[in-house]
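Hey, weird one. I pasted the EAL domain-containing protein sequence into the form twice and got a warning about non-standard characters only the second time. First submission, copied straight from the form history:
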Amino acid sequence: LSLLGDLQQAVEHNQLTLYYQPKVNLATGRADEAEALVRWIHPDKGFIPPGEFVPFAEQTGYIREVTRWVLAHAIATAGAWALAGRPVKLSVNLATRDLLDRDLPSLVAELLEQASLSPDYLCLEITESGLMADPAKALAVLQQLRAMGLSIAIDDYGTGYSSLAYIRRLPVTELKIDRAFMIELVHNDSDRQIVRSTVELGHRLGLKVVAEGVEDHATVALLRAMGCDQVQGYVFAKPMPAEDFIRWREALD
Ligand code: G
Ligand code: G
Ligand code: MN
Ligand code: NA
């Protein structure tokens, strides 16, 4: 069977699963939010990371089905957690092509309704490169999603091209500063100035600012001093299955 055939099987037979990585609020220490990250558990090949099949799914156009699977599962899971009295706001990654899918807003609206989930508990992450294919069409889709009350984050912020032009024009609510800036933050003065300025810029524009890929406490302390809102990284937790995430969160209380 081809890789595409295998992936179709995976979507149809629930061989995909979601892992959850907490986004820790630096002011409160709580983890009321998490990013949902897809994993493929292949019957013969075992665990296939998204870096190996998401680009392939994008090339073939099959990403549309993968994204639909991810959205359905993330929204159902967030709905169940909210009903259980432990709401978690989830972030879901969109691929480039997803922003060109005019049916996406109505699909998301339907899934939210089925799960009785408020749009306050869903954030969609996009990348700058995802906007470049057809900016006008992507903008129309994003405006609809934002008008529905969803949050919109720019992922990998700082690594793309027209960063400033995009945040000026797009209905975004959150910047996720790329991990590349965190690796040497404590030792590298220019990285520190860039991150400090980005936090300030984000706040001046009314956006939430998240640091991604943080691996040590010295960096967390620096980010807290800079006023960064949230940290997502191995320093707190790796992406984990739903049950582990719930247990991890309960241990925080
Ligand atoms: O989780 P991990 O570090 O393995 O993720 C690797 C890459 O795959 C990241 O760029 C991440 O954004 C992407 N990715 C993870 N889950 C999803 C998903 O559900 N949809 C899309 N489009 N990309 C994802
Ligand atoms: O591209 P995107 O930001 O969606 O990718 C998110 C992925 O980054 C996560 O799924 C995870 O695998 C990876 N990641 C998260 N935190 C860390 C970290 O602290 N260090 C490293 N090396 N990778 C991380
Ligand atoms: Mn992401
Ligand atoms: Na990122």
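That's the output from the first submission. The warning seems to come from a hidden character in my clipboard, not from the data itself. The mean pLDDT is 95.
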